[in-house]
Design goal:
Length: 280
């Protein structure tokens, strides 16, 4: 992950950690989500944990164990607060290689239930066991963006989405450029072969023995080597397929051994007993 992407993830986590819910129930739910997470050196998250802990300690009887959050009985706002805390404590976001990947690392027994809860909330996620730990994963950028938005991400998420759009556009543009470049290289290569074949057949006098259409196409190609088949066809008033067949015929003739009888079309029929389909 690049330095700028890493900074963006840090900024997003700091933005989420700075959220101060107005409802006491949301603050308690977020505190439960944060409980039991990995030790962190992130200043904003550490300050959030201390703030919620102080608030909890001031309210006798409000302290509850980390696994006491009742998802089914809780309203949507409490669920999102709990998920925000869980993401800050056990979640990670990666933007490596332009691909968005978000995962939670949990106790193995908690991965399946979390995956089912997220799916029920319209955020389908996959779960698995990895090196003895439960992992709940999203690799879909749209789902990740929806999740981050629902747990409170704002300005940083807009920046993340803008980068994703920019990368997608660059990727599309590069694919178009690469395709056009490949097409151009093929066209240049074909034109070079055709020019060489035309020069060889002209020098041997064989081009003059070819049907009128073949000679016309050869002359047009010689005059405008850079023209596409469509441009040659429009210039000559022919179908594109007729131009293509004429050039293929010229190339095939030049590739035959010099003593091959097929390089010498029969005089009968004005040279039509040549390779392939008659063109005149």
């Amino acid at each position: 992950m690049s330095e700028s992407d890493r900074d963006l993830v840090i900024a997003l986590r700091a933005e989420l950690a700075a959220i101060d819910p107005a409802r006491a129930c949301d603050r308690r739910a977020e505190g439960i989500g944060l409980s039991g997470g990995r030790t962190t050196r992130e200043g904003p998250v550490t300050r959030l944990i201390l703030r919620l802990r102080r608030e909890r300690d001031k309210e006798p009887g409000s302290s509850v164990p980390a696994d006491a959050f009742d998802w089914d009985a809780s309203p949507e706002h409490c669920r999102m607060a709990w998920l925000r805390g869980l993401f800050l404590a056990r979640g990670s976001l990666s933007l490596a290689g332009g691909r968005t990947h978000l995962e939670f690392v949990l106790d193995p027994a908690d991965a399946g239930p979390l995956s089912r809860r997220l799916t029920a909330a319209g955020l389908p996620a996959s779960s698995r066991i990895r090196r003895g730990r439960g992992v709940v994963t999203w690799k879909n950028g749209d789902t990740i963006g929806l999740f981050l938005r629902r747990i409170g991400a704002g300005a940083t998420l807009l920046e993340l989405e803008a980068r994703q759009v920019s990368r997608a556009l660059r990727g599309d543009l590069n694919r178009v450029i690469n395709a056009e470049s490949a097409n151009l290289q093929r066209s240049v290569g074909a034109a070079g072969r055709q020019m060489a074949a035309i020069a060889e057949l002209t020098a041997s006098g064989e081009l003059a023995e070819q049907p009128y259409v073949v000679r016309s196409v050869a002359e047009a190609r010689r005059e405008t080597p850079e023209s596409t088949l469509s441009e040659l066809a429009e210039r000559l008033g022919l179908h594109r397929s007729a131009v293509q067949r004429a050039l293929e015929r010229i190339e095939r003739l030049s590739l035959l051994p010099p003593d091959d009888v097929r390089r010498r079309p029969s005089r009968r029929g004005g040279g039509r007993a040549a390779i392939g389909r008659p063109l005149s």
